[in-house]
Each structure stands twice: as C-alpha cells, then as structure tokens.
Amino acid sequence: ASNGPDVSPESVQLHSSDGRIILRTRGYRIPPHRDPKWAFITGILYLARRNDSESWGTQLYTVDEDEESRGAAPHWIDPARCRPAGDVTFKPNRMLVFLNSTGAHGASIPEDAPEGLERYIYQFRIAPTVESMSALTSTLPEERRPFWAGKSADY
User: Fold this and answer.
1) 3-state SS assignment for residue 136
2) Is residue 39 within 8 Å of 126, Cβ to Cβ?
3) What is each CA distance from 132 to 1, 58, 72, 94, 129, in whole angstroms?
4) Exposed / middle / buried, residue 141 (Cβ in 10 Å: 0-12, 13-18, 19+)
5) DSSP-based three-state secondary structure for 133
6) pTM for the full predicted model
C-alpha cells in the first residue's frame, strides 16, 4: 500500500538546464564536491581549441566514508577523505557525464600554468521538473525528504 501519490517512471518529467559556460584560468580551483542531489545527471563538455594542452581537465575521486549529499547546494567534501580515481583530460568535444550519487569531482589549474591559459567548459544538469520532484519526494519517508529538498526552479 502506498502512502503518497502514485509516481511511476513514466510520470517523472526530466528537464535539462540551459547550462552555462565556465572559464577556468591559472589558479582556478573548485574543491572535491558532488552536485546537488536533485541534479540526477551532470554533463561537462570541454570546449577545447585545436592547440590547447590536454592538461587540467576534471579530477574524479573516490571518497572514504562517503555519505549521502543533502539538499539543494553542492555537497562539499573534505579533500583529506578523497582519493584520486582518474583525470578526465581536456580534449576537444569530450564530454564527462555522471550521476550525482557517490564519489566526487573537482578541478584545479596551478598558479604556474602558462600565461593566458584558458579552459572553457559547458556545464548542464538533467533533473526532474519542480512538479516531478515534489511528487517524488512526497513518496519518501519523512526522514528522507531533507536529502532531496530545495529544488525550487527549473534551471
């Protein structure tokens, strides 16, 4: 017996964000993190130019004593708990796509990288619409709802 509305996979509407172009330059650092839980899938497309070095893409990590992320904000993870799992090199038209479930990702470009270095990426997320997220969370036990809370707009 169900205690909430009937939510089937066919009734969940997914939405892709418009995305954003991000510029990474010398000294750029985004520490290990996981994107918001409601963002089921994240895509990062490398907009590399013909002569760009493949260095300084995105780093992937396993996480010691990994824990579930909570809410609408990114889940920042103590770097001391992160173990390198791989480096996605910065190649033209390469796309990194991942589920926001376990592990972490981050990126850094050292201060001593070549002068004028630029890394352009296009990032987008695929998530349930606000209405679908509301229906999905209403099917969860009360203690699980805060893990999924916070999505208030389709972006």
Assistant:
1) helix
2) yes
3) 21, 31, 15, 31, 5
4) exposed
5) helix
6) 0.82
Q: Which of 41, 43, 54, 45 is nearest to 14 (CA)?
A: 41
Q: Can you state the percent helix, strand and coil of the chain, rounding each to 5? A: 15, 35, 50
C-alpha to C-alpha distance for 140 and 136, rounded to whole angstroms: 7
Residues 47, 122 contacting (CB under 8 angstroms)? yes
User: CA end-to-end span of the chain, whole Å?
Assistant: 34
**What does the block give as tokens for 73?**
């904000």
At 93-129, the pLDDT tens digits run 999 999 888 999 999 999 999 999 999 999 999 988 8
- Residue 144 half-sphere exposure toward CB, CA atoms < 13 A: 7
